[in-house]
Amino acid sequence: MISSSIHRVLRQRAGQFKKCCLASGNLHPAAATYSSTAAPELPPCDFKPPPYKGLNFESAMKTRTERLSPVTLTYYKNPVMMTDGHMQWLFDDKGRRYLDMFAGIVTVSVGHCHPKVTKALHDQLDRLWHTTSIYLHPNVHEYAEKLTSKLPENLKVCYFVNSGSEANDLAIMMSRIHTGNYDIVALRNSYHGMSPYSMGLTNLNTWKHPVPHGFGIHQTMNPDVFRGIWGGANCRDSPVQALRSCDCQPGSCHAKDMYVHELEDVLRFCTTKKVAAFFGESIQGVGGTVQFPKDYLKEAYEIIRSKGGVCVADEVQTGFGRLGSHYWGFETHGVVPDIVTMAKGMGNGFPMAAVITTPEIASSLSNALHFNTFGGNPMACAVGSAVLDVIEEDNIQANAADVGTYFLTELDKLRSEYPIVGDVRGKGLMIGVEMVTDQKTNTPLPAQDMTALFEMTKDLGLLIGKGGFYGNVFRIKPPMCITKEDVDFAIAVLRKTFDSY
């Protein structure tokens, strides 16, 4: 077991290596704990934050324990307290630098404190913070025009809110009002938020509370070609495929057909003759970067529309060029939804979100008032507009495609070297690495082993996420400004970590 092997190494060598080789100023003191060989060296960075003089770590941990919600998740056995950020870099209270490969849970899209985005916010802060939508303000109108120009066909009407959960809440209500139908279908293993309404769409029991929720929402089998019943080496839109073989042939996908049949079965037995909506992420995020068989969403959309429903694309994690080949995740599936929800990377860390739909669906809400106090406020729209500019000016989408493909192919090499790497999947800079006990059984790597690996990557200066139903998937979704040199460092850290197993 890795927990015992790593801990044995820690005990044996902790006394031997109390200091790292800090000549370059880029190595973490914690890294020397693991091995006498040199730890991977962080790529250079020309930014140095000012000395931190605020609340100390111990006081922060005490307050976190006593004054913040007891369900607040804290990463790592030995947590880190971040005080500064610059592009793909984070700095803790001790001045240590980390390569951020999780982007505040897939939220920092163009880089921490990107200078253009920061300036846009500063400029707006000096003029006006808040009005609400009862008055005209130029920012919201300019931003609505700019944002909808990025969407296809008739997706031209914006509702601005503050979070992905709010956006999906509104999309639920909108779909039911517009269609006059009630039943909604979502995928197992999906995550769409934690509000009382959106929790019904979220189908991971680790995120569900024992309260009434999800009325009229039905779950269909998740079309997962790695852990699902069907699928394998020919099914994903990714540079890297699952290892197991499948019956799919060029131009056809048996796995897709079977998962579509399961959707039809749910509609046949669990819903009325008409439905309101189908919700789907373009790639499942919290569920572990799960990709669907090619053309699954295309057929699912056709079926839902034949039942009178609308199709909702949750782009909270996959939008704004993250998948590289397209601006929106749904475009990689060859579909155009009726409603799109978005958040996270939309504001590069500033709290903002939106629902975008057609004029016909938008008009359905006109029978009663709808209002959001902070949605579309001047600050948010200034930030959102600057983010769109940076995506274009810095070639962020092209970088996601180029660096993301390079990252995936390098991770695939690790899968060939280490039997504990069960699957590598994703597209662009939306990447998952599923850890297993062995590639023959694909048994999820036990939690204590994942925790030990996870802790070591942090101590070596790399920040990644965790996800998946079993918590055994490393989620790699960095700011989209990372470089191939950053990828090489991340691969070196993962290789050193896996060597400890």
Low-confidence region ranges: 1-26
Helicity level? 25-40%
- Output mean pLDDT: 92
Kindly provide the radius of gyration, computed on alpha-carbon positions and rounded to a whole number of angstroms.
Answer: 23 Å
Largest sheet: 7 strands, mixed
H-E order = HHEEEHHHEHEEHEHEEEHHHEEHEEEH
In whole angstroms, the N-to-C terminal distance is 8 Å
Beta-strand portion reads 5-15%
Which structural category fits the helices and strands? alpha/beta
Sheet with the most strands: spatial strand order: 4-10-9-8-7-5-6
Task: Specify the overall morphology.
Answer: globular
Features:
alpha/beta; single chain; 15 strands; 501 residues; globular
What is the strand and helix layout of this fold?
Layout: H1 2-13, H2 57-67, E1 82-86, E2 89-92, E3 97-100, H3 103-106, H4 115-125, H5 138-148, E4 157-161, H6 164-179, E5 184-187, E6 217-220, H7 254-270, E7 277-281, H8 296-306, E8 310-314, E9 339-342, E10 353-357, H9 359-362, H10 378-393, H11 396-417, E11 421-427, E12 430-435, H12 447-459, E13 462-463, E14 465-467, E15 473-476, H13 484-499
Parallel strand pairs: 3-13, 5-6, 5-7, 7-8, 8-9
Antiparallel strand pairs: 1-2, 2-3, 4-10, 9-10, 11-12, 12-15, 14-15
